[in-house]
Amino acid sequence: MDSVRLMASSHAIPMSERWSSPSTRIVKVNFDASLICLHHLLFSGMIIRDNEGEVLVAGCFSHSHVLDPFAAEALACHKALALAHDLSFKRIIVEEDSLWVIKKVETFSKDRSLIGMLIKDIKRKLKGHYSLLPIS
Questions:
Q1: pLDDT tens track for 63-118
Q2: Number of helices and strands (H, E) in the chain?
Q3: Which residues form the RNase H type-1 domain (predicted)?
Q4: Quick one: which of 93, 100, 87, 97 has its CA closest to 126?
Q5: Which burial class, exposed, middle or buried, applies to 9 when counting CB atoms under 10 A from its CB (0-12, 13-18, 19+)?
Q6: Which residue has the higher pLDDT, 15 or 90?
Q7: Whose CA is closest to 84, among 37, 115, 129, 120?
Q8: Is the dihedral of CA 99, 28, 17, 78 positive or negative?
Q9: Closest CA to 98 of 35, 48, 39
Q10: Which ranges of the chain would DSSP assign to H, the alpha helix?
């Protein structure tokens, strides 16, 4: 079964202590977004590691016309899922630091927020290619 697990993480713990390895044959996608609100610019980085912590791929992207931090995190999540899908990773854990995005993705009701279509597409990507596992 293909699967994705969305997990929340805390910025208070240093990255070297916070990262935990996934099970065998599962890769972990970590990403974060930074928004320059005044200019509506998003910068995001992501890294995909195997169960031994070996970096399989890393990347970054920028995007203009991003209105708020919620949209920035949702867009970064969308880009991370797209990267994992494009590289044919089937069993992944997506580690996300925005509980707001996780809750939006996990809810069954239609999202009528400004980023509702983006959340809908994230859900479609998860449903079409992976199963969403509960947060551990």
A1: 999 988 999 999 999 898 888 888 888 788 888 777 888 888 888 888 888 889 98
A2: 4, 6
A3: 31-125
A4: 93
A5: middle
A6: 90
A7: 129
A8: negative
A9: 35
A10: 15-18, 69-86, 99-106, 116-129
Structure tokens that stand for 46 in this block: 């992501």
Residue that has been written with the tokens 């998003």 in this structure:
42
Q: How far apart are CA 27 and CA 19, in angstroms?
A: 12
Q: Given its phi and psi angles, is residue 21 left (phi above 0), alpha (psi -120 to 50 degrees) or beta?
A: beta
The residue type of 126 is: L
What global pTM score does this model have? 0.74
Distance of alpha carbon 106 from alpha carbon 103, whole angstroms: 5
Angle formed by the axes of helices 116-129 and 99-106, nearest 10°:
70
Alpha helices in 61-107 (DSSP H): 69-86, 99-106
* pLDDT tens per residue, range 22-39: 666 788 888 889 999 999
8 Å CB contact between 119 and 105? yes
- Contact yes or no for 8/99 (Cβ under 8 A): yes
Going by the DSSP 8-state scheme, the letter that residue 111 receives in this structure is: P
